[in-house]
Each structure stands twice: as C-alpha cells, then as structure tokens.
Design goal:
With 304 residues, this protein is of the alpha+beta class. It has eight helices and twelve strands. The termini are far apart.
Length: 304
C-alpha cells in the first residue's frame, strides 16, 4: 500500500522513537548492571592505573597516613607516589623493604609536595622500623642507593647496614650528619695536603691525638695515593672522641706510601664540627690509632 507523504513522516517519527526507547532501555540496563556488579573492580583498576602508585603498597601504607586521601579532591592532600624502592632478602623468612611515599598538597598557585622513605624490617610488617623524610636531611633531593644488597645510603651519606639490627634503628638519623658534610670535606682537604705537600702539612690539619704517638707516629713522609672509605652509621656509635657533641664521628682512610716497599696504612681520623661553623675550617680533626684493613664496608674512594 502506498503511503502519503504525511503518513511516511509520522511513521519515521514513530519508528525513531521506538528505536530511541530501545536504546535508552539498553543503556539504562547496562548502567544499572555496572553499578550493581562492577564498582570494586572499577575502583581497583583506577588505583592500579595511577602512575607510580602500587595498589598493594598503597593498602599497606594508608593506615600510616589516615589524613591523606587516595585522589585529588578539593584542597585535601593526596598520594601521588607509593612504590617499592628495593627489597632485600635477609633469610628464608625475612625481606627488608624500602617504600617511597610522595604526597601532593593542592594549593592555589603551585602544589606543595613532601615525601618519605619507609624502611620495613620485614616486608610483612605493618609499621616501618624507621623512616627518612626527603624534605630534610640526607633524603633531600637524593635517591637511596643499594650497594651489594647489604648497605643503603642517600647521596654521599653514611651507609646503613640492612643486616645489622642496630643499624636499622639508625636509618632515620642518616641526614645532616658530620660524615655527609663539612667533616668529610675537612678530611679531604687534609689528605690532599698529605698527598701534595707531605706529612708535616697533613699533621698541621690533622694532628696526632694525645697518647696515640706510638700507634701512628711512623707515618710515611710522602704518599702517592690517599683514599677514604665510605662511612657507616656505626662510625658515630663507636666514636671514642668523647666530645659529647652531635657533630662527632670517625673517618676511615687509607694512605699508600710513595716508597713501594712500604705497606699501606689505615687510619681513623676523628672529627668534630663546631655547631656555629659553616666551613671546613670549623672542623677539628685528630688521628686515632692505626686500624686493620676493614672488611665491613665497600671499598675506598680515591681522593684527588
């Protein structure tokens, strides 16, 4: 049957409406089904897809930061990075775990950021044994280095032994210490004087401590190589200087005589920095007694 033009228009309108109703019904059905079946899956996918945020580690650290939000919402601080830095197996049942947490605090012009490194004595622990803020001390602007799956340090700071229980407690105190600043600078200056000008110039900058003359009094007049061993946090604990100052410690050095028939000498250089000092001239150095070649730390670095 042939329809008039007016009838065809009405048919098209009715047909389109029918299709629209069908499509709308399907859309509502899908939306309703998504709300009922998939909310946790979608949220989990959103967490997993956020750059730098490990969903399992996020679940681990969130109780430690109850005020921090999962995502940006208004002016509330939120996690931007939660990631594993390294994991070191100590024995069959224990793994040391270092986790980096970064937080963004929204502001009107420029967002603020802060971050911490959390050291877990065991990867299964819920509370870290120690932590370092990257906004101050050794963590500022520096990445942690893992050396020989045994030590960790920030920048040129002291090494923390992951195998020693007591050393783990010192992890938080590795920033702003004597070994990481003026004292090592003063030691380098004294060793360069030894290398370039000889023993007399060296002893003016690092005199032999009273009572240690017999132990270190036979130092060679000239040396052809001087090296500094990396410092350990233990170097603070065993300091025998008795200055009762937070700025104290020992620096282990190795000097190789110019005479090839002579053996290398290992020295402990005691160091104390004055609280008001801001240059290496404000650090007092003294020579401690001679040591055996150390086996408890990475190899020395040459001083030039």
């Amino acid at each position: 049957m042939r329809l008039s033009g007016k009838s065809r228009i009405i048919g098209i309108i009715l047909g389109g409406a029918t299709v629209g109703v069908v499509l709308l019904s399907l859309g509502l059905g899908c939306a309703e089904r998504s709300r009922q079946v998939f909310p946790e899956e979608k949220a989990g996918a959103r967490e997993a897809n956020r750059e730098g945020v490990d969903p399992l580690l996020l679940k681990k650290v969130r109780p430690l930061y109850p005020e921090i939000q999962l995502e940006r919402a208004g002016t509330g601080a939120f996690f931007s990075v939660v990631r594993e830095v390294f994991r070191v197996r100590v024995d069959d049942a224990t793994e040391r775990l270092l986790v980096e947490v970064q937080v963004i605090v929204p502001c009107a012009y420029t967002d603020h950021r802060w971050a911490e490194f959390l050291l877990f004595k065991d990867a299964e622990d819920s509370v870290p044994v120690s932590k370092v803020s990257s906004a101050s001390g050794a963590g500022f602007g520096r990445r942690p280095q893992l050396v020989e799956n045994r030590w960790v340090r920030f920048g040129d700071g002291p090494f923390v032994s992951l195998l020693e229980e007591e050393s783990l407690q010192d992890f938080s105190g590795t920033g702003g210490c004597i070994m990481d600043g003026l004292a090592r600078g003063a030691a380098r200056a004294a060793l360069r004087a030894y290398l370039n000008e000889g023993l007399e110039a060296f002893l003016k900058l690092a005199p032999i401590r009273a009572g240690q003359g017999r132990a270190v009094g036979s130092l060679p007049a000239r040396v052809r190589r001087v090296e500094m061993y990396p410092s350990l946090v233990e170097d603070f604990r065993r300091s025998g200087l008795r200055y009762w100052s937070p700025w104290e410690g020992t620096i282990l050095v190795r000097v190789t005589p110019a005479d090839p028939t002579q053996d290398a000498v290992i020295l402990d250089m005691g160091a104390k920095g004055w609280a008001e000092g801001i240059t290496i001239a404000d650090v007092e150095l003294v020579l401690e007694d001679r040591c055996e070649e150390p086996t408890d730390r990475p190899g020395p670095e040459e001083v030039r």
